[in-house]
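Input record (one chain):
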Amino acid sequence: MTAANQIPKDLISRLPRVRGSYVANAPLHKVTWLKVGGPAEVMFRPADENDLKFFLSARPFDVPITIIGVGSNLLVRDGGVPGVVIRLGREFAFINKDDHLLRVGAGALDINVARVAEQAGLGGLEFLTGIPGTIGGGLRMNGGAYGSEFKDVFVSARAVDNHGEIHELFADDMGFGYRKTIVREDWLFVDAVLKGVPEAKLTISQRMNKIKATREKSQPVRSPTGGSTFANPTDAKAWELINAAGCRGLVRGDAMMSEKHCNFLINKGNATAADLEGLGEDVRRCVLEKSGITLEWEIRRIGIPLQSLMEEGRQ
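The corresponding structure, as predicted from the sequence alone:
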């Protein structure tokens, strides 16, 4: 990216002709829950799986590729994201039931999968109600909430590599750990098979309602936020460390650590990505000084700082 407002026509001309859509200078602040960040140099929304595979096999390999979901756990830096950002649309949001299994697209919202499982009388998937985001993101980070994780309901998944080849993955291939897998970062999940346990719909509904009520009571769900900011260290809870370090309610510009749940970053209205990331780093320093523990970011941060882009433009 040579300037924040320059439309990269030359890049689009280098990309393969697809059936999906390319958008130059696509505004990413409109699709992320934190509502900040610069544009994608080019956003690609594939028409279907074959279109995605073709693009990945035919693209220029010097062009960087970034994959995003619905932006629920994502911080886009103010300088934007160079290269091509891939975002899966409704063609990848299918949810199909097969006995006690659900085959779901990587673009399906976690909460929609939980609701389909509820109507099908399949228990064990209620925790998805408490995870904002899509199945693809949940697979990538072994998302979890309220005592369950993706690994607990996982059967298999399919991912496409950066050459357009499909790979079928099972539990050993995923290498599930706490908020991580071992699958290569440049592989893009396209779908997964998840398992449930036959149960009465009323029992499932009651558990889902309890999760919803607990989440609304304890988290700032009606504020622009990115979910849990930092992963829990071994044998500790991030929010307790943040609270003990005196960072509950800490602010930088219009960025704030939530008073309601101090492991949640909030955009109070006009925060920049630099405000939010800077506040997160302030919190990490405070916690390290107080406890000797280094918090690791759980929010995914992508793109380049605006300052770096401006310095590049002056050269």
